[in-house]
Request: fold
Amino acid sequence: MNSFNHYAYGAIGDWMYNTIAGINTDPVATGYKKIIIKPRPEGGLEKVSAELETYYGKIDSR
Reply:
């Protein structure tokens, strides 16, 4: 495979941001206007950190 632009990579990244780092959008608001941060490290992970640049600014979860 020559491309890293594949659905599987995006799905894994999405899972890492949403589940492990806990960065999620509020279901009522759209586009990261309101966020919910609830990290759930799994599989022996004790610490997690993630940053996400959005239109409304940087989201940081640690």
